[in-house]
């Protein structure tokens, strides 16, 4: 699954990356997106950057991370859905309409997974691409409309079984789209649900890496660059506590 991720690139950089293989990509963005700060610990229920096609144009939006289908009466009584399994998105009531009509892409510079050791404790690991580019995660979105007409745009990240590189950390991983698959996934008008589901595959072997990081990421209150610094580097940089002066034996 994916429960925390980072976004360290600007909308301008994402636009430049996508311009080569996504048509009708809207360049302008709302102020909150254009001037958004780097995020090192994005958590469920927080606003996330989501790209989707609207009236032919692909444009950025801010959406709540945690999908709420349009048919839900009371979101407070509905479970928080931050991930959707690729194998069942065409069957599950919560996802099948979004798979047909509301597919989206969620950019992420990297994401965190917690690896359980033999003793049962969990160590957070930061997963990123070896080429330094952001993941373009496949997602689904939905707009929930309340009884008084209020609207809340929501989204979830689609996951697949992890490849041989990443399964040592966690058995599932977000779908990372690339090249023409990005445009096809976003084109709900011309690419049907079955064809779109066929695009949901793991990232290529050798394309990503993982490194253990500080448990500070466990708290959503922490959101700084030290969260993605490898744990062994933090240990090396940590100052040693002053000890007692050595007693010199002069005799």
Look at the structure and give the mean pLDDT. Answer: 91
Order of helices and strands: EHHEEEEHEEEEEEHHEH
- Low-confidence parts: 235-251
Helix content: 10-25%
Q: What does the largest sheet look like?
A: 7 strands, mixed
| CATH top level assignment | Alpha Beta
Termini separation:
65 Å
The name of the CATH superfamily reads: SOS response associated peptidase-like
Q: Shape, please?
A: globular
- Annotated CATH architecture: Alpha-Beta Complex
Structural class: alpha+beta
Calculate Rg over CA atoms: 21 Å
Whole-number tally of structural domains: 1
Number of strands: 12
* SS element count, helices: 6
- Looking at the structure, the CATH topology is hypothetical protein yedk fold
Q: How much strand content do the residues show?
A: 25-35%
Question: Explain this structure to me?
Answer:
- With 251 residues, the chain is of the alpha+beta class.
- The chain has one domain (4-230): Alpha-Beta Complex (hypothetical protein yedk fold), CATH 3.90.1680.10.
- 15% of the residues lie in helices and 31% in strands.
- It has helices at residues 11-18, 31-34, 96-101, 180-186, 193-197, 231-237; strands spanning 4-7, 39-42, 47-54, 57-65, 83-85, 103-108, 110-116, 122-129, 135-145, 151-161, 172-174, 208-212.
- Strands 3, 4, 5, 6, 9, 10 and 11 form a seven-stranded mixed beta sheet that branches. A five-stranded antiparallel beta sheet has the order 2-1-7-8-12, with no helix packed on it.
- The longest helix is centred in the first third of the chain and has 8 residues, at 11-18.
- It is globular and about 50 Å long.
- The termini are far apart.
């Amino acid at each position: 699954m994916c429960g925390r991720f980072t976004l360290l690139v600007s909308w301008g950089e994402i636009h430049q990356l996508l311009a080569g293989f996504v048509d009708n990509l809207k360049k302008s963005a709302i102020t909150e997106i254009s001037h958004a700060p780097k995020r090192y610990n994005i958590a469920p229920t927080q606003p996330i950057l989501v790209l989707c096609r609207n009236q032919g144009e692909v444009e950025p939006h801010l959406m709540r991370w945690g999908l709420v289908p349009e048919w839900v009466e009371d979101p407070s009584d509905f479970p928080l859905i931050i991930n959707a399994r690729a194998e069942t998105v065409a069957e599950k009531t919560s996802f099948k309409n979004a798979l047909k009509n509301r597919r989206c892409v969620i950019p992420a510079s990297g994401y965190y997974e917690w690896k359980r050791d033999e003793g049962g404790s969990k160590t957070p690991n930061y997963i990123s691409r070896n080429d330094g580019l952001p993941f373009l995660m496949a997602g689904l979105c939905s707009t929930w409309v309340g009884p008084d007409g209020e609207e809340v745009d929501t989204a979830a990240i689609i996951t697949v079984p992890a490849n041989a590189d990443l399964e040592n950390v966690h058995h599932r991983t977000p779908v990372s789209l690339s090249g023409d698959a990005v445009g096809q996934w976003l084109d709900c008008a011309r690419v049907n649900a079955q064809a779109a589901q066929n695009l949901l595959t793991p990232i290529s072997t050798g394309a990503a890496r993982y490194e253990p990081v500080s448990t500070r990421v466990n708290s959503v209150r922490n959101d700084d660059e030290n969260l993605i610094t490898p744990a062994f580097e933090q240990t090396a940089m940590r100052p040693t506590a002053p000890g007692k002066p050595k007693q010199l034996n002069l005799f």
